[in-house]
């Protein structure tokens, strides 16, 4: 069992790396777009009209992918005061409840993201020409990753492997 | 009852250690379901909450901060600060505060300040015989300065939360004096504690050495000028200045100092993505939570209640401060700005408080909240960097809390401290 | 409003006291009175429930019951609404009133029913004109090279480009300081917004070219509407219709008050401008955006109205 989950973890780690690289590329592109916007307006006196909308779009992508990675790496802020004083057994139960809560919300992101995307599919984003539906794709993809990563956390905890939490050392691969 | 579901679910999830973003999201989800409304609204609000142009300043300033820490700009600023105030009583403690002023002028994140300056200063302070608690106390509380001095992306969040009609440039300028006053009161506190504990001072390095350090730190300082000058002369907007800060930081660290390798660059970008997406997801979920508060008429009800308590603006401001400090000890800054601005700003404005002034009160107040348990991100960062327990820090941090609260009172009751500079620049 | 059986939640992005907000509040009073206190309206002003794009969706989903919105956000959803957002399509406010109060207006309102909404009434949105900080614009040539902030909309970008300006999309909240510091030279809006945003403090020249006289709409969620009895539906429709004259009256008063304040501040107003070159410059814009036969015929019909 433990070995199977280790194998699963290494596959998921690849996914995390991909998501993180995509996310980072999004941030670098955003920087380039806004810099180009300033240059176009101030130097060329011809403001690019696509930069604002596309940067906002990229931002949505990098937030949701980055937030999903944050689930796996334990980057998200939480309130650990009560947990501080509880015995480890109870703590682990609460951690698992939290992971289930995250799964529930992430499933909502997927299901309702699909609904929002299909509603907006026939609209177009001004000055960009893409379908308005793609705005919600990030919500769907981020949700899928969050479900995967949370399930992995629960499985790892079940077999006694470490899972990362905010404020702790990034224990992850064993 | 709906409010009970909203706040009840939120509180329970928070207590069992669910990440704050999901506490906000799931409690909104539960409440919407309880009301029998389509839950899709929660996700629409989440998505709209993170699709705001002005929010872009947050990842950009975080990114710029990461680049400057990894690219050696922060260390040079600390060295400069050391030469200027190191000879005062409390030596390196004073340096820590002055470095926060310099670093705060190029970064808007208290957590970045605490980790950057703390990472550099705490080991040095320990080595020279300062108590670790003293080093961490100063690191933590002085990082609030970064929130007050421009650029401050939290003020941008405030402007957005207030409906996007408050000038970001005015808010930036308004924070300068309160930020400097905070620095001075912390220096006094650092001086008093150092005197009591009998800490040493640093030798004054002399004018020539100071000049060398100044030249060394100049590219870092120029960023302040570029951001301010660029915005004031119409080359870019206040929120675009965050992107320029990134471009400049990349340029300086790669071209001028040659201190940033490819792997440093990747690490800085990944670090920025990690931090920014965590902060922004909270903002998105808070948008769903805030929508429900509006839908359930919480702000209007609260204004009515406040009016029932007192007609006196001084009392109301005191009440707001106490409430914010209380909330700030339990929750993190950006969600609190997003949640409380639509509730408290109308109250404050009803009593004649200028929205720019209120923004400064709010940020300073919530900044103090960042340094107090149970939820104090900056306190955690400081303790983590200094490898010291929260409890130990909490026992001796009080003089610095005192200095911060005294500044808060000055800023609250003397509007001119916030409003005089913006009026001058306008 | 404790006695109300049903309270409709209505959204508005404008602040308390704005003509659209008071008009819907007035409609609520009429409705409460005529239904013997059964039906009420509560207005959530100042975009408390979200920006227009989002609240439209919420109305379609039946999360909120009513919504006062500009037509712009509908251009993507209901093709016919595009005609009202075309530059210089209306010759004057009277022309616009004649169109929306007549058959064309009714036909377009009826289109909303295919999208989960019931169109109740048209409100005034004033006429939008250019203002800037550089010089008085007395002819089309004066626009050459000036940077104007526009809303995120293809038609607006194309309009400013066609006039020779530099169209610069930008969030509304950044416009004031951007004009002040010179990031942009100006923007465009109606009298009340020009005044209440404070933009007149930094943009001293206002040219009344009235490129856009676009009405706004009051819509109801079809889900909420269908729950009502036929009599109550009629009550709602009638109360909405009856709020229109009040709205127009208040709008005029508001416009006049704003104009007076702006003039008193010493803003230079260019009133009698020859619009012909402006309208001629719009030919490629119309070619690009009026593509379907349906839109072409609507444009012709509107032009034929007095
Ligand atoms: Na700052
Ligand atoms: Na510090």
Q: Can you walk me through this structure?
A:
The complex is a heterotrimer of chains A (174), B (426) and C (306). Chain A has 174 residues and is mainly α. Chain A has one domain (2-77, 85-158). Chain A contains five helices and no strands. The radius of gyration of chain A is 20 Å and the shape is elongated. Residues 169-174 of chain A have low confidence and may be disordered. Chain B has 426 residues and is mostly helical. Chain C has 306 residues and is of the alpha/beta class. In chain C, α1 (19-34) packs antiparallel against α9. Chain C has twelve helices and eleven strands. The model of chain C has no long low-confidence stretch (mean pLDDT 92). Chains in contact: A-B, A-C, B-C. Chains A and B meet through α1, α2, α3 and α4 of A and α1, α2, α3, α4 and α14 of B. The site of one sodium ion has 8 residues of chain B, from loops. Chain B: Its main location: membrane. Chain B: Part of the tripartite ATP-independent periplasmic (TRAP) transport system. Chain B: The chain crosses the membrane at residues 47-65, 101-122, 134-151, 171-194, 206-229, 235-260, 272-294, 314-331, 336-353, 359-385, 397-421. Chain B: GO terms for molecular function: transmembrane transporter activity.
Please estimate the helix content of chain A.
Answer: over 70%
Task: Count every beta strand of chain A, where a strand is a DSSP E run of 2 or more residues.
Answer: 0
Topology, number of strands of chain C: 11
Helix content of chain C: 40-55%
| Mean pLDDT across residues of chain A | 88
Question: In what range is the share of β-strand residues of chain A?
Answer: under 5%
Find the structural class of chain A using helix and strand composition: mainly alpha
Unreliable stretches of chain C: none
Oligomer: heterotrimer
Number of helices of chain C: 12
Which pair of chains has the greatest number of interface residues, and how are they split between the two chains? A-B, 58 and 58 residues
């Amino acid at each position: 069992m433990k070995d199977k989950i280790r194998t699963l973890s290494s596959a998921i780690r690849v996914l995390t790396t991909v998501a993180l690289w995509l996310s980072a590329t999004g941030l670098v592109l955003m920087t380039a777009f806004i810099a180009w916007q300033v240059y176009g307006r101030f130097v060329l006196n011809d403001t690019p009209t696509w930069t604002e909308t596309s940067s906002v779009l990229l931002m949505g992508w990098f937030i949701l992918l980055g937030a999903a990675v944050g689930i796996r790496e334990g980057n998200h802020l939480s309130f650990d005061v009560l947990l501080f004083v509880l015995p480890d057994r109870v703590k682990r139960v609460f951690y698992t409840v939290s992971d289930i809560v995250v799964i529930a919300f992430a499933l909502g992101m997927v299901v309702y993201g699909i609904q929002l995307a299909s509603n907006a599919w026939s609209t177009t984003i001004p000055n960009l020409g893409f379908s308005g539906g793609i705005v919600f794709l990030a919500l769907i993809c981020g949700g899928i990753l969050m479900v995967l990563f949370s399930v992995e956390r629960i499985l790892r905890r079940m077999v006694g492997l470490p899972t990362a939490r905010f404020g702790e050392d990034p224990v992850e691969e064993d | 009852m709906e409010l009970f579901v909203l706040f009840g679910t939120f509180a329970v999830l928070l207590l069992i250690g669910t990440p704050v973003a999901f506490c906000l999201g799931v409690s909104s989800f539960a409440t919407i379901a309880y009301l029998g409304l389509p839950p899709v609204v929660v996700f629409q609000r989440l998505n709209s909450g993170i699709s705001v142009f002005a929010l872009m300043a947050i990842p950009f300033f975080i990114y710029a901060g990461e680049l400057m820490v990894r690219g050696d700009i922060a260390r040079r600023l600390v060295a400069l600060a050391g030469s200027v105030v190191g000879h005062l009583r409390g030596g390196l403690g004073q340096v820590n505060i002055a470095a926060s002023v310099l670093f705060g002028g190029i970064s808007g994140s208290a957590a970045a300040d605490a980790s950057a300056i703390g990472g550099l200063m705490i080991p040095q302070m320990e080595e020279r015989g300062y108590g670790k608690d003293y080093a961490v106390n100063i690191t933590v509380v002085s990082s609030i300065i970064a929130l007050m001095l421009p650029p401050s992306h939290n003020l941008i969040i405030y402007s957005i939360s207030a409906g996007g009609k408050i000038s970001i440039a005015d808010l930036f300028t308004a924070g300068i004096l309160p930020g400097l006053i905070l620095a001075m009161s912390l220096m006094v506190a650092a001086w008093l504690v150092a005197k009591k504990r009998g800490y040493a001072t640093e030798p004054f390095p002399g004018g020539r050495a100071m000049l060398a350090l100044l030249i060394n730190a100049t590219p870092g300082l120029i960023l302040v000028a570029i951001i301010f000058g660029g915005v004031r002369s119409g080359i870019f907007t206040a929120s675009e200045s965050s992107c320029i800060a990134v471009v400049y930081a990349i340029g300086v660290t790669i071209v001028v100092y040659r201190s940033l390798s490819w792997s440093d660059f990747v690490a800085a970008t990944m670090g920025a993505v990690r931090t920014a997406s965590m902060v922004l997801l909270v903002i998105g979920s808070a948008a769903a939570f805030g929508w429900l508060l509006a839908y359930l008429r919480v702000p209007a009800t609260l204004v009515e209640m406040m009016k029932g308590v007192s007609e006196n603006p001084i009392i109301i401001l005191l009440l707001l401060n106490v409430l914010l400090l209380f909330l700030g000890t339990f929750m993190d800054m950006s969600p609190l700005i997003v949640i409380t601005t639509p509730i408290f700003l109308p109250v404050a404005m009803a009593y004649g408080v200028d929205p720019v002034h209120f923004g400064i009160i709010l940020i300073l107040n919530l900044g103090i909240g960042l340094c107090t348990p149970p939820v104090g991100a900056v306190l955690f960062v400081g303790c983590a960097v200094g490898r010291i327990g929260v409890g130990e820090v909490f026992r001796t941090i009080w003089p610095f809390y005192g200095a911060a609260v005294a500044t808060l009172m000055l800023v609250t009751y003397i509007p001119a401290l916030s409003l005089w500079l913006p009026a001058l620049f306008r | 409003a404790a006695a109300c059986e049903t309270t409709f939640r209505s959204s508005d992005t404008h602040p308390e006291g704005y003509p659209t907000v008071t008009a819907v509040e007035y409609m609520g009073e009429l409705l409460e009175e005529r239904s013997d206190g059964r039906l009420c309206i509560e207005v959530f002003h100042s975009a408390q429930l979200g920006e227009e794009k989002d609240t439209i969706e919420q109305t379609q989903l039946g999360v909120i019951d009513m919504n006062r919105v500009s037509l712009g956000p509908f251009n993507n959803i209901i093709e016919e609404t595009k005609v009202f957002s075309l530059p210089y399509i209306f010759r004057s406010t009277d022309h616009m009133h004649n169109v929306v109060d007549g058959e064309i207006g009714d036909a377009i309102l009826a289109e909303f029913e295919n999208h989960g909404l019931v169109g109740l009434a048209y409100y005034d949105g004033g006429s939008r004109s250019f203002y800037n900080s550089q010089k008085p614009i007395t002819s089309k040539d004066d626009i050459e090279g000036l940077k104007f902030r526009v809303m995120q909309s293809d038609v607006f970008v194309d309009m400013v480009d066609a006039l020779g300006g530099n169209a610069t999309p930008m969030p509304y909240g950044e416009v004031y300081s951007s004009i002040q510091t010179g990031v942009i030279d100006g923007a465009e809006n109606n009298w009340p917004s020009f005044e209440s945003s404070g933009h007149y403090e930094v943009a001293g020249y206002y040219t009344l070219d009235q490129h856009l006289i676009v009405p706004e709409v009051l819509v109801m969620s079809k889900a909420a509407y269908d729950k009502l009895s036929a009599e109550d539906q009629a009550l709602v429709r009638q109360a909405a219709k009856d709020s229109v004259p009040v709205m127009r009256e208040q709008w005029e008063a508001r416009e006049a008050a704003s104009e007076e304040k702006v003039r008193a501040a010493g803003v230079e107003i260019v009133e009698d401008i020859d619009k012909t070159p402006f309208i001629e410059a719009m030919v490629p814009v119309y070619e690009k955006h009026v593509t379907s036969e349906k839109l072409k015929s609507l444009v012709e019909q509107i032009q034929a109205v007095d």
